[in-house]
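cron nightly-structures :: item 1 of 1
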Amino acid sequence: MVYASTVTETVDERLLVADPQIDEVMDLATGEIAPAESWVSGDYQQVLELRMRLMQDLQANRPLLACPMCAVPVHLVSLAAERRFYFRHETEDGRCPARTKGRLSGEQILALKYDGARESQAHRDMKDVIAASLRCDPDFSQIEIEPTWKGIDANSRRRPDVRAVWKGHLPVAFEVQLSTTFLRVIAQRRQFYLRNGGLLLWVFKDFDMGDARLTQDDIFYNNNRNAFVASPGTLAASREAGNLVLDCVWSEPSIELGQLGWRQFHRHASFGELTIDQAAQRVFLFDADGEKTQLLGGYADAELRGAFRSYWLRQPNSYDEDLWTELVESFEARGIELPTHPGMGQGLYALLDTLYTVKEGRAVGWRYDTLVKLAHHIFERHRGHLWMFKLMLAAHDRGAQIKREDTTRKWRAKVPVYREAWASGDKDFDHDDAWDDLVAFLFPEIANELGTTPH
């Protein structure tokens, strides 16, 4: 069963601290210096992805950004009490007027907090739950708690909380996240397991987006908005299912009143259901990033489709050069060509007036007061549009209407004529596909059948 709760994503235009010590940063690839706020603004997920990227690039000795005053590489940190970010020097030796570090270094705090947490009873219990769950799954072998994982580089090694091999070829490190884990730890482990042919999966004791800490956000947003929870309940489910079962928490996007929002879901999921993106060190049940891209693209398409409809249905339908030019540019960005003037498109006026007449259920452009009169005109003068006309009639359930209007039954007599012409390959009745891309975009209800053989 899938459980859902509403969580609306807050887009805060001010994610940078009010008065950062480093107010500009230098792109080390281009040498360009830009305001810090240009890198840290608007989209919380993008800021967290930047935060992870900066740290991973530092670990790989290829820093992305630096302080323009001293050229020391920088990474992104957050205030302890609120989600406000600022750039911090990777090393601070007094040569730069900007001061971004306290008395203890990040490494010192890291050692104190992270190593301390690994010794807690809760941490040990979580490792036992994960290992016991893995032993239920025949796809996992070589299951070990805190083994030494030697890297390909000299003296590089890690001790993951639990290690196992999936389907005989993919080593998987399961790391428990209970309290504060520094971004540096997360980035180091991601890089280590990627470099050494493994996969990293962070596991939580509990996870609630309504009460998530920044360290949970770092993992969640960089894992395609998916998080995994292990518990005695998931261990029982693993034993019952005969495979590794975890509780997956994920977010799904939606657009309401022009605003992008997110709803949180969770359900038990077996490891075999998950998508593994080893190159990005991501494991997920729901492709949140892909769904967001598709949703935003569809929403943008709907807006453009609506703008075109509004333009075409204006009464009277007078030409507005500025508006038409904007539409031409917008459609060009989607790979769809429009003429520089609607009258320059061969057959375009007749085609769109026909299709919008069917869609709207009233005359658009034409002076015919019934659909059947328009049908006769299409048959006599625009036979290349008959297939699209027929598809639109079916899509908008206009069949009954056109039959009522066909009091002379002359239209019914023409139906077998054009069907036979299509079947025999009569060139006079060939489908005019010159504007198929535009028609498919403006009238998605017939897009799937548009390119099929008329029948």
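cron nightly-structures :: done
The CA atoms of residues 238 and 244 lie 5 Å apart.
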